[in-house]
Each structure stands twice: as structure tokens, then as C-alpha cells.
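ok so i was messing around last nite and threw this chain in just to see what happens. nothing serious, just curious
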Amino acid sequence: MAPMGIRLSPLGVAVFCLLGLGVIYHLYAGVISSRINAFRQKKNVDLRDLLALSIEAAVEGGREVKRIREDNALEERSKGKTKEGVSEKLTLGDLNSHRKMFYLFKNTYPFLQVNSEEHDEVKENPAVWSREIPPDVQQKIKGSREVAADRITVWIDPLDATQEYTENLKKYVTTMVCVAVDGEPVIGVIHKPFTGYTAWALVGDGANVLPRSEYSISAPKVIVSRSHAGKVKGFIEEAFGNSTVIIPAGGAGYKVLALLDPPDEEYEEADIYVHITFIKKWDICAGNAILKALGGHMTTLKGVEIDYSGSERNDGGLLASVKVDHKTLVERLSSIDKEKH
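result:
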């Protein structure tokens, strides 16, 4: 007898059984799918491992940047123009560095969200992380700290200061990696390919770089982008006075390092880093993490913390400092209309 006392033909019984099997299959598939999703969500990554991988990625990318420049094989072309009307360059150094850095992450942690400034048609690369933890990381970062993979966003800048790279202004050129957790910068790595210097930090655990002993905000040295130094000059002088020293420089990574105890004589020491137009997050995330680890700050001009999840754009300008009253700087700058300058 069928349910509810209904008599079915052999064909009806077969159809009824098939329907029952279909329901069971969909229920089972739903359970399995939920378990797979839960398993994916539970993937954890050790931040010390991520720091070591970030350092290796920046160094390996830097090797490509240096090799292409020294071989004079840039294959330079334009990606378009910036908001300031400056040609945005792309070179083989950018692309080769991107391939090394991006695939070191994707081949090691394929489930991580990795955002790079560059993109190309190469879909595979054999780059593999060595799994080595650098000695200074072992010394300064003693324990592991695991974070769920779905909370992590990686930002890569395979070649910061491409314009300066094409002009052979090597001191401005860096490769950078940042790891954000829940949108907050936690790991920052800035590597100088032509000197071999690497600055790194893991917020809450340690860094291999220090701030300088003294800074001034009464008569500050302000470092700005050389691409629009003239435009920002009036804005800075209105905030800090006509005697303010303005340092035009290339590359966001270089500008952050100029706020710190300099690794070499190439750096012009600055007290504050200011950027008044929109800037991409892969340009600034690594520096933000390093400053944060040292007790410093990087915010919009209005003092808003920058969220390193979602969109690549930061439209609020930039103010970076360390060992000074950041709130006072924000008050001086936020009252000025940057559009009139």
C-alpha cells in the first residue's frame, strides 16, 4: 500500500521511489555542501608564516625589478593617466614582479584574497614559498598567532614608483606587501630592490625598524608626491606656515621610510607624510601597518582610519606620522579646503 492507503501501479511505485530518492539526494547534498563551506571558513593561517611569506615575496619581486632595470629591458608602456594627468607607466619589471609575488601567495594559500596593482594573462607560475622563517623574524616574533583565512586580505604593490623606475631614480623604488585582518593593516613589508634593505612589522608582535628620536610639527618637514608637489605646496603652507620644508619624492613606500630611522643615506628625513588626492590601497597598506606597529598613524586627511577591505580606492587623502600628536595634525589639515589649492 502507498501512503494514506492509496494503491499504486508498479509504474507509480517506481515514480514514488524515484521522488523519494531525489529528496534524500538533495538533503544529503545540502548537508555536504554546508560542511564543505564550514570547512573552508575554518581554514586558519599563522601570521608569523604570512610575515615570512610576505618578506620572501617582496624580495623575490624585487629581484625581478632590479634585473629588468639593470638589463635595460623595461618594455615601457602607459596604462593611462592619473587624476593629476600624469602618465601611469607599466614595465616588464612591474609584470615580472607581480607574477613572482602574486603566485607565491596563491600557490601557498590558494584560498586567500590577494589584490595586486598589476594583472596579466599568465594564469600559472611555479613560484613556491621556501617555508623558511628569516632569523630576525624568529628572534622578534616568538609565538604563532592564527587567524581565519576569510578575515584576511593581502595587498601587493609589485613595483612602487614606476615613473621613477623608468627615469632610473632607483632610490624611490620599492616592492611592498601588506596583510590586513578584518580591514585593519597587520603585516607590512617594504623592500628596496637596489640596496637589499627590507623593513617589516607585525602589529602587536614586533618590527625590524624604529622611529627616529625627534620630530617636529611646529616647523615640520613634509614629504609629498613629486608628481603634484606644486599643487600641495599651498595646502601645506596654509596649515603649517610659509617656512615649512616640503620634500617632493616618489613612491609611497619611500615616503613612509623617510619618517623612520633611515636605513641608508639616500633618505631625506621627514616629519609628516601628506597626500591630498585619491590613492590606491596597495600603495599605502604596508606603510600603514609598519607605522601602526611603531605607535604611529596613517589616516585620511580628516583623521578617519583606512579600511583595507573592499575597494582598492582611498579617496580621503592621506596623513601619516609617528611619535607626534596626530590629532593636532588632523585639526590643522581638516579645516583647509584642499580643492582651492
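not much to say yet. The radius of gyration is 25 Å.
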